[in-house]
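Subject: sequence -> structure tokens, single chain

Hey, anyone have a minute? Need the predicted structure for the following. Not urgent.
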Amino acid sequence: MLLEKKRERIVQIPTASMADIAFLLLTFFLVTTSLDLDKGLQLALPPKGEVAPMSQDKIATLFVNAAGEVLLDEEEIPMNLIKDRLKVRLARKPDLIISIKTDSETPYQAFMSVLDQVQLAEATLISIAEPET
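Reply:
Had a minute. Here:
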């Protein structure tokens, strides 16, 4: 008789603490994950001060037009020669200021490529002028 009264057992997984476990896992992964933050341009800006007039022989002007073409002191120059030309000029005049000007329609990638070439030339005095409209 005891065998006949034996009930079927239903196997269940307790889910009462499932939300707690999910919350703890979420917290663990949020705390241990590192986030890559954009650091922006690594340029040291000068302190705010008076504007002093500069003579043109102390400034090398790089102009990037809307087509991404580069002019160094009104002479067209290929992108890959910027670094070499600036290194020669900086060797002759170490206090040379490199002024980068762009057109309002200049692609951002062209501007960044020119800035990278200027930094590869080890220029320390860089001026970024407002885009011409």
